[in-house]
Design a protein that fits this description.
Number of strands: 5
Number of helices: 4
Distance between the termini: 23 Å
Strand content: 15-25%
Order of helices and strands: EHEEEHEHH
Strand order of the largest sheet: 3-2-4-1-5
Structural class: alpha/beta
């Protein structure tokens, strides 16, 4: 079994007039020569949580951190001009909170961070302070 020390929040980097899903991201990642979708979960704008890779499988979502992390991606992350923005809907925020609570129960020692916290060159997940937003779910 993998030791999970990080839960990493990502965005799919699409504008409000574009869509992404676990199936579509799987296609994008296969086009980039990944085995399959790199994330473990995708949260759609309507709050639906779609499964990506199984949790037991190493992800492909954050260089140097995949072996010990779970990747959670939300649909969106860009404003209409294509600039990074917190585009999460109320439904996405509620679904993300629920999913992160469940993951925290399974992996209580895992830090919840944004992709940009581990790679400052990234704008993902489109907003800052992921760790602060989920401070109540961080390890003791």
């Amino acid at each position: 079994m993998r030791t999970i020390t990080l839960i990493i929040v990502h965005c799919s980097a699409v504008r409000p007039d574009q869509t992404s899903s676990a199936k579509k991201i799987d296609e994008w990642h296969k086009d980039r020569k990944f085995k399959c979708i790199g994330y473990h979960y995708v949260i759609r704008r309507d709050g639906t949580i779609e499964l990506g890779r199984p949790e037991w499988q190493v992800g492909a979502h954050c260089v140097n951190h995949n072996a010990h992390s779970i990747g959670v991606c939300y649909e969106g992350g860009l404003d209409i001009r294509g600039q990074p923005a917190d585009t999460r809907t109320a439904e996405q925020k509620a679904a993300m909170r629920t999913l992160l609570e469940q993951l925290h129960q399974r992996y209580p020692r895992a830090l919840i961070v944004g992709h940009r916290d581990l790679n400052p060159a990234k704008d993902c997940p489109g907003y800052e302070n992921v760790a602060h937003e989920y401070a109540d779910l961080q390890p003791g």
